[in-house]
Structures
1.
Amino acid sequence: MVLPFSGSEAYSINVNQNHEIFRKSVREFMENYVSPQVERGEKEGKVPDEVLQKAKELGLYGIQAPEKYGGQGGDMLMVAIAQEEMTRVWPSFATRISIGGLYMSPILLYGTEEQKVKYVTPVAKGEKEAAFANTEPVAGSDVSGIRTVAKKVGNKYIINGKKIFITNGGYADYFVVTARTSPPEPNARWKGISMFIVEKPWKGVKVESRIETIGLKASYTAELLFDDVEVPESNLIGEEGMGFKYAMAAFDRTRVGVAAQGVGAAQGALEKMVTYSMQRSAFENSLINFQMVQEKISESLTEVNAARLLTYWAASLFDKGEENEAIIAASMAKFFSTEVAEKVAIRAITIHGGYGVSASAGVERYLRDVEVMKIYEGTNDIQKLTILKESAKRLLGLRL
């Protein structure tokens, strides 16, 4: 079968010395500064303020945002490396940082200069936090099924509706919100969805509740209510009715970051697995000398490195401007990396025995956190459908 990529050049990965210097700085920050705060943060359900302040100083909020909007002007590989290194130590923290990138993406792609200056700059600098309010009680993977409405009245829109499972929803100062400005068309349900920037202090914006999730305990997943919220016309992103397309474009790009989170979680679990197997003895022998333990470590080493290569490849395709190929690769990387992370976490728990299911060991947390990663920013089943549909379109000219 012919592969849906342009040629052998499409498979190149451009990791350079600057990327590795950046990796080293993020790793040192995570190991020396963040790691001692993880247990406290998990118990309190939040990232300590001093950790967020340090992340702000390092520029982790705006890695890919242009420098003129307060970011580092980095590439997608830098984003992947940062997400991998942050998740390796504390997945909740990585998610807290990454959501700002999802929020900024459609504004940078389709927003006005005024919107970029006003709503990207403070988030890229870490001065404000943000969230992407898309999922609804009746519309998750079926984004075109959203029921939140935005009615045009004069030079403003009135938004009414509920959003659910919004990562960072309780912390955010700004939201990107999708809402219907016109009814869906019979054969094009995605039409009629628009995208807006909404500020939390505005009248009618309410955080209804904090949703207790199986993992990512410090990310504050929330249910939001928009009750007659008045949004200036100037806060419409791009064209009216194109919000679905804008959301998909944003997810296509940030999906690489989720794939990198899978790599980081798998790497973290693998390291704990190896360390414990060297320290723990049974039957007068170190665990690492048992073949069944060696098998689990070998399988994990292979799969983690395969996931890393796949993720870096997807990031490199975006950096080279090969977006059609990158969309397929990002979906491959997202579902594969998070599935690998799940398997490696289970192996790590198994090798730890009773300690593996104890919260104090910090191993079971990787499994809980990965279960969330498999769902957000497009479930793994949705990724498989995307891979097939995009490949069939490129290879066979079929629209499935």
2.
Amino acid sequence: MPVSASHSPQPQVVGILGGMGPAAGADFVRLFVQACTDRMGALGIPVHDQAYPEHWLAQVPIPDRTAALNDTREGAHQPAEPMLQATGRLAALGARVVAIACNTAHAWHGLLQQRFPQMVVLHGMQEVVAGLAAQQVQGVGLLATRGAYDAGLYQRELARSGIECFVPTAAEQDVLMQGIYDGVKAGNYRLARDRFESVSRALQQRHNVSTLIMGCTEIPLALNDSPRLPGVALVNPTLVLAGALARHAYRDAAQPASCRG
């Protein structure tokens, strides 16, 4: 039964920890707003400007996550402190639930949740894997940063659900990193798409996988819906996490979002 505008439930205030990089943070907001529109439709809430949840994007400069994971020297420039500061600002603005708009930054998820127990800090990998498990996916290829590979962020969650994970070779990981840093982060999307497609085809041909996780928020900015990867389902974790944040905003987080898109 549709809900009248005057009786629409008040959504929770939510936050988005962005800046890693800025284009990925902006893309997350776009997908979150679309997810809210879809959620209102599913709940029978009239869609209008005032029905969207209050949401805050902390788009702050944060040191490189992969570089930090590879450099544990005392005094090395680490992202933990600015991430904590930004999350604190979101908490001060009233955010009850926060999403991290960076896959590799989930290496600090536990720290953020520990420091801010009054908030729910969503775990992107768990959301993605829950969706894959619900679809009974048996194996996936993983496109990610070297930091995410080394930290085992996706591999751990996939293994817990019995999903086999195939990763690129060291040389192919170099190609991915070039696509991320010399491509998307530098504004050269053509180069990025070429590099991402190259590694995707290699994984598909070597392991016969039909599902690829785009496990860096900047990969979908160049690769999403590639016509040169026929027969491959591209999983966009940004889309999945944005959907989870929308469900939490409307206090309806029971079901994992579809992870196709």
3.
Amino acid sequence: MRLKHFIVYSLIYIGLVGIFAFVQNASSYKVSLLGVGLELPVALWFVLPIIIFAILAIFHVAWSGIANFRQKQAIKNDEDIYENYAKEILLGIENDKKFKTDTFKTSNEITKFLSPWHTHSVNIANEDISEIINVLEKLKNGEVVELKKYKLNNDNPLVIQNEFNKLQENSSYAKEILKDKKTLDDELSKKAYEAALKTFSYFDIKKFPFEISKDDAFLLVERYAKEENFEMTKDDLLNLLIICDLDKYGYVNVAKSLNKKIEPDVLIALFNKLNSEKESASYAYLYLLYEFGMMEELKDILNYSDEYPEFEILMDLRDQGKNISANYFFR
């Protein structure tokens, strides 16, 4: 209630009480105190305490109004300070502002935390917000946190980051992320599939309904060549080599890497099949024939084609008694 309204209503109330008292008793009453007598109408004696109470109440309301006004002014000043402070924080300017009220205390600390240049610890009195800040810090540092109590949607960025952290902590979690996926339509799924390609067995990888790209196929072929326990059938390997769609040098390099894992006869047969599917694999096939000493087969091919000058040079040198590795042309 505004002060002027309070004064008006108080005067009306005092007037009504005085009139009612005067109607009931119009006589006077004398009070003596320390030899001093004071005679006033009974009605006035009746309303006098109310008048004193009203005066005190007016002073109280006035004082509260002044205090509220000063508080609002302080908040307004703090608002201006906070706006400048927020700009400075975002610009990376370290300047700890002093606020006259506690209104922006929590906002001040949250602004520090949300700054892209945030490096210092924050001190927030609100326990719930402080707990959330702690959760955000852990997520940012790659830790796995418990988010069930916050009842967040699956597409919430905190939930997604927590899934990334779980995947980073344990690559086998990729199976959980991808179990109901039909397409790789988000970054989390792509990251999980990438982890699966790098760590899962080929038997498990084949269970996923995703199309294998050139890069994926090349990664799997590299794993097969380098990892002793990573196995697949030769038909699967052939399909992956076809998907890789490499140039002649790429297929030669793959043939070199597979030479350490696959028996020569099997490897030559594999690249013979690949040669019938990919023309660019013909150099790799001839490379294997030369390196494994299958000279008759190599000559038969060279007799019907002039597209392989490197191998013709190698064969001419060999006929002259100079055995040079095919790696001279394919490094």
